[in-house]
Amino acid sequence: MSPDGARVVLNRNESGFGRLVVVDVSTGAVTEVAKGVHGQLRWVGDRVMALRTGGRTPTQAVAYDTNADGTAWSRTTLAVGPVAEWSQVEEHLVEPELIEVSTYQGARVPARAYRPADPVARAEGRLICWVHGGPTDQWQVTFMPRVTFWVSRGWTVLVPDHRGSTGHGRAFQQAMRGRWGSVDTADVAATIAYAQALGWGTRERTVLMGGSAGGYTALNVLIANPELAAGAAVVYPVTDPAVLAGATHRFEAHYNDTLVGDEPVVVDPALIARPVLILHGDSDPVVPVANSIEFARRAAELHRDVELHVFEGEGHGFRQPVNQAAEYALTEQFVARIV
User: Fold this and answer.
1) What ranges in 198-229 are assigned the alpha helix state H?
2) Where exactly are the transmembrane stretches of this chain (predicted)?
3) 20 to 30 A from 91, CA-CA: which of 16, 247, 261, 315?
């Protein structure tokens, strides 16, 4: 809020894209200031300070001069994150395009597609559908090196906001209540089918990816719609929401109660018909690694193509650079094997 209390500055979420706006408290008038996802907002004197980022913009600390009209605020970049090497791949830093997909029950599901700039790469029709975690979360259009990694290799990266995602209002988020594993699976499958109809990928060249709850959805899509993808690469995936409720850390102990229905959807290894890669840390406090170990053991007994790698000392997300590099290498090797 401005020092005089007359105006409020905020980041507006527009289907995952960010925009800085100023709201006049007395009139409710909204003035658009700048594109990009803005966080850590603070109004000090005649300056608004923020962290700003976007699909092509590494995180920067910026200051806006508020003396002018909102549409004319000047921006000064105070500091920029490590970008020395990004200039070498600038052609692969892309802004995503927004699509909307009709799914069953008349729902409209937004998704953002990061497409290679090279028309030859686009024509190859290689598609990654990357499902965010949460499951009540959203991947806004921020600077995401992991997306750039795959775009630089000629892949279209599709990021859907299935029902239950944040950023689209209360009703959209609560549409998952009691239906986790059902509506998200249907929405992601519909999004993949739509992208493939556009020529962005084929079943033989489509790979599902996701972590945690996103891994759960990716595996469910692979089981329910094996005709849509060649396989799935997931990290620390949920495989049984009911088991998770009793084993996760205290902060999320009751988080799943409103998401899981009377009959939780369990990922059954017997139903896996496509190759799966699982990466998991042995110190994960959110999704116990024992779940992935047991899943891989049962899959092996059933002669399913499930590859598991456990990383020592890692939790819910890999922090050690050597393991981060291994995640990329193992995933790339897996994708090269199945596509």
Assistant:
1) 213-224
2) none
3) 16
8-20 burial, b at 16+ Cβ within 10 Å, e below that, comes to ebebebebbbbbb
> Does the residue 99 lie in any domain?
yes
Q: Give pLDDT tens digits for 82-96.
A: 665 666 677 788 999
Give me the CATH number covering residue 255.
3.40.50.1820
Q: Is residue 1 part of a domain?
A: no
Kindly state the tokens that stand for 75. Answer: 């921006």
pTM of the model: 0.91
Question: Do 224 and 302 have their domain in common?
Answer: yes
Task: Encode pLDDT of 138-168 as tens digits.
Answer: 999 999 999 999 999 999 999 999 999 999 9
Enclosing domain of residue 113: 88-338
Report yes or no on 17 lying in a domain. yes
CB 50 within 8 A of CB 78: no
Q: How far apart are CA 147 and CA 64, in angstroms?
A: 29
What residues does 235 pair with on adjacent strands? 211, 279
